[in-house]
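QA checklist item 7 of 12: single-chain prediction sanity check.
[x] sequence parsed
[x] length recorded as 533
[x] structure emitted
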Amino acid sequence: MARRPLPRILSSGSASITRSREIARTAADNATDVLHPLITVTRGLRLLAGTGRQKWAATPRDRRGHVLFLVAACVMVVALIPYGPLLALISVMGAAAWRGRERAPARTGPDEAGTARLRALYEALVPHFSVADDPGPLFSHGGDWEKAFDASYAFDDDGRLTRLRVNYPAYFTDGDPASRARVEQVLHAKSGRGREYHFAWDEEGNHLLMTVLAALPTGITAQRFVTAPGETVLGFTDADAVRRTVPVQDGDVTRDASPVIWRTGARSTEPHLLIAGHPGSGTTTLMRSLALQALQYGDVLVVEGSGTGEYGFLTGRDGVLAVECGLSGALATLEWAAHETERRLIAANRARQAGHPEPEDIRRPLWILLDRPSALGHLAAADGRQDPQGLLEVPLRHGRAAGVTVVVAEQTDSLDALTETVRTHTRARAVLGPANREEVESVLGVQPHTTPTDDVPPGRGYTRLGTGPVLRLQVPATPDPYDGATSEAHRQAVLDLLPGGAPAVEQTAPEGAAEPVPVRADPLVAAPAVAEG
């Protein structure tokens, strides 16, 4: 059956409609161009009128009469001056044209450089967040990166990422530390090195939030911190990492800072501390800070294995029982500390059995600060004598009940020289200086949730108290006041914290002597104390 042709009105109607639409669109565009100034002024007058209504509504009722009087006076003045109404009309039209002008819309998305960076980061994450048999992959080469990043990102002035939220598929093994580490390494490398990133994994919602951490302040020096007896400030951390703040003097201003509080004593779960770091990382600075805080409520024994005299300013001060640098003095001091721990335990036990309070001579805390025990261990092995670490077994095992706290500082490359007793009982840990994630994990037991940087100031690192979270740490500046490189402000800050008493003085050497003979003022007796039977 032959197909009939369409009527002429139906075959040519579409062309006529198209031409009519083009003519109407052209006429509308021409009218818009001609009437654009009028449209702009009208829009501006509407905005000015709306602003006037808002001002009038915000004016209190008791002041509206004064406002009306002022407006009427201005209108009368304008009406009386020559060409006043014309100038007023021109001013109003100019203000309306300026207020009603078209503004460029605010840019909501990233620029071309930011888009390219996000695209490259998305492509780098594809091998980690995709599998071959996924029917609808969230991550695929050439896929939609906006869906994966959820439009939650921020850039700094240099065009580098400062915040990024990543949505990953549910089958990703986010509970595996190795899988997490690979993803964090990619994000760190693609977002820019030289900064410290924090990674927050939301395993329930399948989200990863990466943020750039601000540098911890380094201007806090040694000072008297607001703490209770048995509390010691290791340093300061991020504001959202702890719930407590203390007032500190940072330069010339006083502000609140977030401290890392280490609790010692009978109710402490981590009564002993291990500090690890490379040379120049600030381990000795932290030891000096702890010594100054401990002297406020207790007594201190200092044993320095390196023999550099970093603790000489403590010699002869009230509460400082001894400052030893040699092997013989260190062995005698640690042996006395072991017997003193036993004596305290026996005295406390007798008091409890008799129903009496503890004696006064065992209530004052005793701190044992041992810096670089591996160096003393090498000397002892060469001389055929006992390793000083063996004398720490009693204070470490029973120090919490006896009020004895042990702090050991050692270099990272010499941690293997520490005995099993020292490593087992020092459950509070701190790692200072530049260290990779594996080194931090070897000391703290877990990897940090941030990316360590290679260039860090002295006293910067991580800390973990027992099974708690890993926290960033910045130790307060506590230099040796007798060091010539110490500034006057830092020197005075340390000297102001020292208790009474005078340091060791030098006796005038007799004629023919090679050098002056130092006079010791240590209150520690030469013979070690014997525990009561």
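[x] summary fact logged: The radius of gyration is 37 Å.
[ ] second reviewer sign-off
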